[in-house]
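Quick review question:
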């Protein structure tokens, strides 16, 4: 990978990391589901009218919109609103290393490598440290929400893989079109129509900035460049860059909201990041294949 692309990828990881602080900025003033609905509405309109629908069945687009829009980002945004710090929300999304292992093994019939197993064990140890040392700064509901979002992240990848699409950008746009309405309905079901109406009345410059930042640089520009790098280089050389996202998210949480990790959470963060790093290691198959079941 050349130096220019490496630098741009680091900047992208910083963008994605700081995005968690931007999410927190928005949920301070508006319903989390409504904020996420606004994010994907801005990301889709009016761009969808200028991009041809990808040649995949509608069910994949609908499933993508629900898992990515509602499952991943709807629940993540709700978890931040429920008290999870922006830094920890980003870190705990990396627990998808566990669900990805299970999805790969049992749904995609992939072989399980020792590095994946070791990475999963380390991630579980890190999660255990966070749960064991709860000091009231993170609610059980918030933790459950962001861990559920991490599972949806893996399911989302399964949907993209099963669709077989090569038109990734068009697939993203058309899939995200199925996110805003379910998110709005969830907001009304959880908070009530009157509360949603009040949230709409409370839309201010902070909310608009949060939604626009999530929609344009984070979603449209970010995923376009990420997919471009995936095509240009091997996945194994690009994917480890995502380890920087929680680092920048933790920095952003500290700079903008004064969030900090205690000693136990810091150790847990390092263990989880190490687990994700280990799971990305590619070893010779003859040395690492583990038969499961």
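Suggested answer, residue by residue:
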């Amino acid at each position: 990978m050349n130096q220019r692309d490496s630098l741009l990828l680091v900047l992208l990881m910083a963008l994605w990391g700081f995005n968690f602080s931007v999410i927190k900025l928005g949920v301070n003033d508006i319903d989390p589901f409504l904020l996420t609905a606004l994010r994907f509405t801005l990301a889709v309109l009016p761009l969808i009218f200028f991009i041809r629908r990808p040649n995949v069945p509608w069910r994949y687009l609908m499933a993508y919109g629900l898992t990515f829009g509602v499952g991943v980002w709807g629940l993540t945004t709700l978890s931040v609103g429920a008290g999870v710090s922006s830094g920890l929300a980003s870190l705990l999304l990396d627990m998808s290393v566990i669900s990805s292992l299970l999805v790969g093994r049992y749904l995609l019939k992939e072989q399980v490598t020792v590095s994946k197993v070791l990475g999963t064990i380390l991630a579980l140890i890190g999660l255990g440290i966070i749960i064991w040392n709860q000091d009231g700064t993170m609610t059980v509901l918030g933790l459950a929400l962001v861990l559920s979002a991490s599972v949806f992240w893996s399911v989302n990848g399964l949907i993209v893989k099963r669709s077989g699409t090569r038109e990734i950008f068009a697939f993203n746009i058309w899939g995200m079109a199925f996110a805003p309405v379910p998110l709005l309905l969830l907001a009304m079901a959880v908070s009530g129509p009157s509360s949603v109406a009040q949230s709409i009345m409370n839309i201010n410059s902070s909310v608009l900035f949060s939604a626009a930042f999530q929609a344009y640089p984070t979603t449209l520009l970010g995923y376009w460049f990420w997919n471009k790098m995936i095509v240009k280089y091997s996945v194994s050389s690009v994917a480890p860059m995502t380890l920087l996202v929680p680092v920048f998210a933790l920095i952003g949480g500290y700079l903008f909201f004064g969030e900090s990790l205690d000693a136990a959470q810091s150790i847990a963060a390092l263990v989880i990041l190490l687990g994700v790093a280990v799971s990305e290691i590619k070893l010779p198959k003859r040395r690492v294949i583990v038969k499961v079941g």
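Why it works: The chain has one domain: 3-290. Residues 124 and 272 are 8 Å apart (CA to CA).
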